[in-house]
Amino acid sequence: MPLPRVRIVHLPPSTLAALADGDLHAANATSPVPLSEGFVADSFRAVWRLRARQVVEDPAAAAWVTGAVWDEDAEIAVGRAGFHGPPDDDGMVEIGYEIDPPHRRRGYARAALATLVDRADADPAVQVVRVTIAPDNTASRDLALPYGFVHVGEQWDEEDGLELVYDRPVRRPQPRRASSPVPGDSAG
User: Within 10 A of 99 (CB to CB), how many other CB atoms are there?
Assistant: First the structure.
C-alpha cells in the first residue's frame, strides 16, 4: 500500500500560541490549514507550549519545528511532526511526531517520518538525524529502524522519562548522471 502524500505545514507563532492555550478557534483563525480538536488534546498541547516559546526566543526555529501533518489528497490535518529545532552545532536534528488517534494505522506516521528524513538528507547543515523512543514503544521503534536508525544510547527526559536514542547519518541524494551513449549505439 503506498504511503499517503503528506507535507509538514509550518504554523505561525500566533497559531502555536493559540494551540498551546487550547484555543482551537483562535488557532484556526491564523493557521494556513484547518486544524481539528485533536490539535488541542493534552499530548499535543505540551508540544505546542514548548514550540510557541521556542519560536519567540529563536524566530529562525519556526522553519524547523513541529507543524501540522497535512494529507495532500484528503486535505486534512492528521497530526503533528517536525524537528525539535534547527541543526545543533554538530549538525544533529531530532524528529518528533504524533498522529491524531482517529488517523492512526493509515501510514501517516511513516509518511511524516519519510518527509522529515528526506528534508534532513537534503540539507547540508544536517549530519545526523535522531529519534528518541520510549523502551516499550515498539511501534515507533519498528517504524524508525527501516530508515537506518541505530540504537546509540538512552537518556532521561523530564516529561517522557526513559528514552532510547536512535541516530542515523544523513544520506545525501546522489546527483543524477547524464546518460552516456552505449558503445556501438549510433544516434542518427
Answer: 21
